[in-house]
Amino acid sequence: MTKVLLDYRVHVMLPYYRLALCLALGFIAVFQPSTAWAIQNKAIIDSLKAELPKTQGEKRVTVLNALAWEYRTSNQDRAIEYGLQALGLAEQLQLKSGMARALNNLGVVYRRRGNYPQALDYHLKALKISEEIRDSADIGQALNRIGLIYQGQVNYQAALEYFERARQIYERTNDLLGVGKAMTNIGEIYARQGKYSLGLEYLVKSQAIHEETGYRDGVAESGLEIGLVYGKQGNTRLSLDYLQKALNLYEDIGNKSGVAQTLSSIAGILLQTGELKKAEEFASTSLEYAREVGEIEWMKQASKTLSAIYTKRENYKKALDYQLLYSTLKDSVTGEESVRKIADLEAMLALEKRQAQIELLTKENQIQQLIRNSFAVGFVMVFVLAYVLFRSNHQQKKANQLLSQQNEEILRQQKMLEEQASEIQLANTELHEANINLQRQQGILEEQTREIEMANNELLELNINLEHKQKTLERQAEQIEKANEELQTGNSQLNELNEQLNDFLAIAAHDLKNPLSSIVMSASAIKRYYDRMSKEDVLEMIGNVEVTAERMRLIIHNLLELNRIESGKLEMATEPVQPGEITEQIAQDWQVKANAKSIKLRYDNQAPDKFITGDPNIFYQIVENLVSNAIKYSPANKNVWVRVVSSEISAFSGQSGAGIAQQYVRVEVQDEGPGISAEDKAKLFGKFARLTAQPTAGEHSTGLGLSIVKRLVEAMSGRVWCESKLGKGATFVAEFPVAVA
Q: Closest Cα to residue 580, out of 550, 603, 607?
């Protein structure tokens, strides 16, 4: 009765559902024009269609299923057509694996259309068949896709149970690709429940698995979900970075559904940041793609975002239109009829399981009855066996008499054989003489063979000696070549050291000459005109001498510091360092110099409880150099931000620690100076770098500061880089791993 009611609901109510969906699609067409997109994987589809007329039986089922799968994101009507053909042929052939694959493909298409009851019906049937034939891969796929249906229905607990069951099956069968898919889905559920740290853990692991297996769709999907988590945590920069990478990957592989979802997600982040124009462009494009592939979920998200955008723009008519579209799409997915159909499917599945249990009990009773009947039959068999033994004994006596007669005949024939044996013995004697002659000739041949072998051995020894001499010559040639290479390398290193020495001497001569000249001139002026100079003039000139001498001291200090690092004489402590405390002290120390240039020095510590391992003095030197550079190259009346932040993922590589939970602390120094060109970025951290940008108040620069910073950061197991666009300031970032307790 339940199955009849279900068939009625699915086949009778389906036209009304399709009518509502067509009205929704027509409503979208009013607002967004259709865009042209080439058929996804056209070469694969054309190849399969060309192969189809040549196939029969099981191979034809495989090709039909492959066509249904390839059409799922570009032409869902054709996908359903090929899926039904594959299902019908597989049922005729009683090919259960083909039936399960076809049912799963049809379920995927109907889920993408938002027809969750029909999709669930197909996946439940596929799951039942896969369990019968014990196909672990298809069981995992069915469980995963049933979980996606419950996720679309916002039944997260049920979805999580199915995803966990799928993951366990994939792990038992060592299906790494399946494990990655299940973990992506689990991470997405936890993120939607607000468990961001747990969700991020699953998503980062799943992305690593997808990269290992080369599954690009999975890499994009995991990256998209990571971006959404960062968006919900308020980290819009990382969020948009991950979402843009996912969008590029989806566009590269031609996944329209993924493009639609990612565009809608980016629009949501831009809406949060108030960039309404860009948000509208992304949401509108998302709606176009979603409508083209019939993805109800992404159509719903895009229309909801557009309604919010137009509300903020006070265009309430368009906002209401898109809100009505969102409500129509939402009702088609989560309405009472849809939920009731799914409940009926679950009831039918439970009924089928109970019927299977009843059939199993019935079979067990039949087996027990058969065992009882077997005891009765056993008694009859014992009686029959006794009768057979009696008959067998009687027949044995007759056989013995016949055997005695056969023995007499055998003795007669044996006598005849002895006579024939005498004749054979005579023939064997003649054959023996012939064998002796043959052995004599064989001995002569063996002697000749030994002589030939001796000659061959002598030739072999000569060849071995020649090969040995040749190898010796080759080794000597390799040694000479290696020595030449080492000599060339040494010459190159000497040339490089000579060039560095020349640079060093040139810079030292250039940078020290002017300060020395200034000191000499000031001292000479004081000496000559002391009695004619006021006290203020003398103090002013002495102050100039002091400033100039400090410049010379800084030049010599930087040169000695660089030499100490490159010669390996850097002594560094390894103790707990609190970045926030030291950075705050540096910000306070440099506040006076910032005020002197009317620069606002802003400090923000977002990681007060984080520690790193290293040398506090070296850390102080690193941060002080970055802060002094920012003030040095910033014009007056600008801002310099100094931030201390923490993250579970490295901002430099976008990856967490390999296999362990690793956190990072970053010190970010951002200015509003002239920015850095691409050409200058290439030599930014080099020695004696002379850049286009110049200090804004005549401050001195040796070109060694950032080179020293880079080497000191790397000595503390960190990374340093610069993010800048010409004319828009620069941000220098030093990142260090958090100390593991």
A: 607
| d(C-alpha 391, C-alpha 388), whole Å | 5
pLDDT at position 189 is 92
Evaluate the CA torsion angle 236, 242, 245, 249 in order and state its sign.
negative
CA distance 479 to 476: 5
Of 646, 659, 718, 734, the C-alpha closest to 238 is: 646
The CB density around residue 638, as the number of other CB atoms within 10 Å, is 18
Instruction: Please state the pTM of the whole predicted model.
Output: 0.42
DSSP 52: G
- Residue recorded with tokens 């296999």: 659
Residues 306 and 30: their CA atoms lie apart, in Å, by 14
- Percent of residues in the chain assigned helix, strand, coil, to nearest 5: 75, 5, 20
Task: Count Cβ atoms within 10 A of the Cβ of residue 363 and give its class: 0-12 exposed, 13-18 middle, 19 or more buried.
Answer: exposed
- Residue in the structure block whose two tokens are 């040095």: 632
Question: Following CA atoms 555, 556, 558, 562 in sequence, which dihedral angle do they give, to the nearest 10 degrees?
Answer: 140
Q: Answer for the pair 276, 312: CB distance below 8 angstroms, yes or no.
A: yes
Give the CA dihedral 664, 669, 672, 675, nearest 10 degrees: -80
pLDDT at 41 over 70: no
Give the C-alpha separation, 74 to 44, whole Å: 13
State the Cα torsion 262-267-270-275 to the nearest 10°: 140
Residues 72 and 110: their CA atoms lie apart, in Å, by: 10
* CA–CA gap between residue 254 and residue 40 (Å, rounded): 6
Domains of the chain: 575-737 (3.30.565.10)
Within 313-335, where are the H helices? 316-334
**Whole-angstrom distance, CA of residue 298 vs CA of residue 152:** 11
Distance CA 477, CA 469 (A): 12
Q: Is 348 exposed, middle or buried (0-12, 13-18, 19+ CB in 10 A)?
A: middle
Please name the residues in contact with 363: beta carbons below 8 A apart, sequence gap of 6 or more. none
The two three-digit tokens of residue 721, written as one number: 């880089």
Q: Which residue's structure tokens are 């042929």? A: 89
Contact 518, 542 (CB under 8 A): no
Closest CA to 292 of 43, 103, 77: 77
Task: Mean pLDDT check: name the lowest of 331-345, 356-370, 415-429, 449-463.
Answer: 331-345
Residue whose structure tokens are 């010669």:
567
With a CB cutoff of 8 Å and minimum separation 6, the contacts of 472 are none
| Separation between Cα atoms, residue 272 and residue 135, nearest integer Å | 46
Is residue 656 pLDDT above 60, yes or no? no
- The Cα 83–Cα 101 span in angstroms is 9
Q: Greatest CA separation found in the chain? A: 161
Instruction: Please compute the mean of the pLDDT values over residues 557-584 and round it to a whole number.
Output: 77
